[in-house]
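Sanity check

After download, print the first record. It should look like this:
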Amino acid sequence: MKVNRSQDVTSGTTVAGAAVTATAAIDAAHLSVTRGHTQVLHDISLQVPRGAITGLLGPSGCGKSTLMRAIVGVQNGVSGTINVLGEPAGAADLRRRIGYATQAPSVYGDLTVRENLAFWTTLVGASRQRIDEVLAIVDMTSLADRIVATLSGGERSRASIAVALLPDPELLVLDEPTVGLDPVLRRDLWNTFRELADGHGATLLISSHVMEEADRCDCLLLLRDGHLLAQTTPAELRTETGEQQLEAAFLKLIEQTDSAAGAGAGARRGKGSATDTDTDTDIGATPT
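Expected structure tokens:
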């Protein structure tokens, strides 16, 4: 595992962790996002391998959704470069190659599930036959003719995932897809994700603040306060930190990173630095 332990944690994040190829599905370099006068993401460089499940993990509010929007090409205030499936992020050619589901359900409450899917097929160029296929994938065939407003939160989330699956995408970007799902549905959905990656060669980028879901991923991107702490794998994270529980391992990584940053700040002060540029003091942020 390669970890960002630069002396100044507000700059210089490196491409780190599990080996990726030159044909990575997502390749970002020096990515930053500014919203108004606030910098949300700080100089992030990363690669996401093709045909694998990559988990984007970190506490709520650490910038996961912003990073996903930048990758999909709908985020303002972006600097740096992002290439997705060989194209610049947001390129028109990517619209039918990427499936994206936000935290907020992207379905209309006054339509049935099937009507929502029929509407979206016209936008993404999918066939009507694909509607039944995606309903089966997310286990919503029996709910196809229900008005979305009458569904539970978890069911609406599954309907949004069905929409994202309509174009049979090469890349599936899912923002907190298991929030509100019971354990059985969460397990079944992760089994579906695994089948999409292993059986169909799809690339999945899935965000979560629940560290137990990290074990279901091939690769991990660990984010905190807009900084990429590491790009790694579950096995490498355990080995590097000596912790078997991934939540404990993530917290240990935070401690190691902050310790290295603090040592670097001390060294700069010892050389006569007038200011301490390490402003990342929230070391207690914990995934829930």
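If your output differs, re-run the checksum step. Summary of this record's structure: Residues 246-270 form the longest helix (25 residues).
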